[in-house]
Amino acid sequence: MKKSFLFITIMLALALLNNVRAQQELKFDDIFNGTFSAKGFGPARWTDGGKGYTTLESSKENKGRDIVRYESATGVRTILVKSSELIPEGKTTPLAISDYIWSADAAKLLIFTNTQRVWRYNTKGDYWVMDLKTRKLHQLGNGLKPASLMFAKFSPDGIYVAYVSEQNIYVEHLEKANVRPLTSDGGGHIINGTFDWVYEEELDCRDGFRWSPDSKNIAFWQLDTEGIGTFYMINNLDSIYPKIIPIPYPKVGTTNPAAKVGVVSVLGGAPRFFNIPGDARNNYLPRMDFAVNSDEVMIQQLNRLQNTNKVMLGNIHTMAIKNILTETDKAFLDIHDDTQWMQGGKSFTWSSERDGWLHLYVISRDGAQIRDVTPGNFDVVDIQCIDEKGGYVYFIASPDNPIQRYLYRSKLDGKGTPERISPSNQPGQHAYQVSPDAKFAIQTYSNVTTPNTINLVSLPSHKLVRVLENNDQLKTRFAALKIRPKEFFRVPVDKGVELDCFMIKPNDFDPSKKYPVIFNIYGEPAGATVQDNWGGGDLYNQYLAQKGYIIMSVDNRGTKTPRGREWRKSIYRQIGILASKDQADAAKAIINKFPFVDASRIGVYGWSGGGSMTLNCMFRNPGIYKTGIAVAFISNQKFYDTIYQERYMGLPDDNEDGYRDGSPLTYAKNLEGNLLLIHGSGDDNCHYQNCEVLVNELIKQQKIFSMMEYPMRSHGIYEREGTSTQLRKIWTAWWLDKLPAGPK
């Protein structure tokens, strides 16, 4: 009796505590101060084929990090390198590890530190090597400019490290510590071993050289940017006179960089270049690597329209080129990184949409035999592991729900049906880092209410081996907030076409009243917003919902979702046209579907492509959208780069109507609502020019609007003190002033 009373008392106290917690509001500062940040794991590196993995852990001795190894099966922990061993001679603090790489025999360790940003990512800095036997620490690049090294890699035999410095490739003999330049013409408009702005941004090309398997040669890209138009940015902040910053940037229809592939011996000598057919200015070389052996490289050549990809083998001795595969599409092709050689080089894997869905194929070395190994009416989202020995490919897919992601496997012989590996009781999105032997995987699981949970699991059973990070404290804090989880739904826009949407309602939502709706929009082919994942908790949108708004988002046709080729290619030659129609049709369908939506209070905001879409929505459909915020946008599609815009729109001379009708600038005269333009003057991606040209047109059309320039902030508008918080304070003040919150 007493036990029962005590139990009831405890339960009531817990319920009261939960009720108090449920009344906690999400504070503005909590969006940025880390209170609701999920803990990650890693970076992790598999060792011994998957028998173990290494990671970084805070040292108990100092402020550095130790490199620790765990046995996959048993969890036995061993400190491989103490942070105290990473203190260079004459220094008192250990190296700050940004990344680390093991040599093939795990006898040497390469450490990347003191990093600096190049375009989007920190790819330049200092590299140090430690010999695990002698524990000697040695800095690479003696005599070269400090913090200038990029993409350092061990040779397969572990004797050398090669790297790029100031647009030239160098090789360093680790035992002799001598540095040898392999190219000498880099600098200015010649780039060796890395890439220019447009290749990095649109083809994901950064590391521009490859070791041959026998460690005797290096194959590399060389780019010539001479003739590319120069875009100039002006830095008015950091000196009494403005500084002009030139960026070679090929805009739509203009001259492209010329790329070629060369081979050079690690012993020196003049590089030799393949004579690849076609105009180098009107073709791209997006991928290149050695084709298993040390005698041939595989080169992909993508034409300027990006609807034909020729796959070639180049002999590094004769420099002869032969075509083995040609992939075509009536619209455009995407580049994939799923090529793995099999059967000792007799065949390779290849991703293609040739049957209407994105699948993995196995193709013979001569291109004559092609086999689909993931058949079915679904898209392969991502290849996780090709386990040739076990006979399976592990991949991410979601045949039944495009906003979720699960691990599957299929037999490499193409027989049978795909087998789902992710548990059925974990709805949401899964990502994996699969061991080379496909026996273990580091699994990251989340959904809209579950922060990232990171586990080590065994495959193919998916049995939990150990929890690496559960984020339980974050789950508790998030569950205590006065917010509602996202709700997913669909709306029809055309016959047989439904769009995925999400909705966040205010916590005190009353269905009998009408609420303002803010659409958070993207809509471009590069991504999708409607995802059943954690996504950082979507804190700012939750904060707006807490203020009394319903937040919604819609993925229109053409967004990057696993709904088949036709879905993704439907926007070809009509970027900004079909998408903005879909968004407007979805908004009208939502207004009709939900009686609690106040049609007189509809807002829209987005960034980058979402900023462009915001403008298109407001200018094309002023009767729907009353208030908007457009951030870092493109106002005229001819102002953007060749590779991205021409991929989806074709050349401007051949699609004049599409470029005109897809550009928000064309419809600026229709503005009726409240519009706030935000742009960074240091945006090297979507140039500030887009904002000034649009402002000029709005003035010409006698339109009233507001704008905010962020001086010398890039596309992400986050540099310099206070930027991120102040930006969102402006957003919030704009919504509260121009789109009154709360129910009516």
Describe the structure.
With 744 residues, this protein is an alpha+beta fold. It has three domains: 141 residues, no CATH class; 142 residues, 6 Propeller (Neuraminidase), CATH 2.120.10; 253 residues, 3-Layer(aba) Sandwich (Rossmann fold), CATH 3.40.50. The chain contains eleven helices and 43 strands. Strands 36-37-39-38-40-41-42-43 form an eight-stranded mixed sheet, with helices on both faces. Strands 13, 14, 15, 18 and 19 form a five-stranded antiparallel sheet that branches. A four-stranded antiparallel sheet has the order 1-2-3-4, with no helix packed on it. Strand 9 and strand 10 form a beta hairpin. Helix 6 packs across helix 7. The two termini are 51 Å apart. The N terminus is likely disordered.
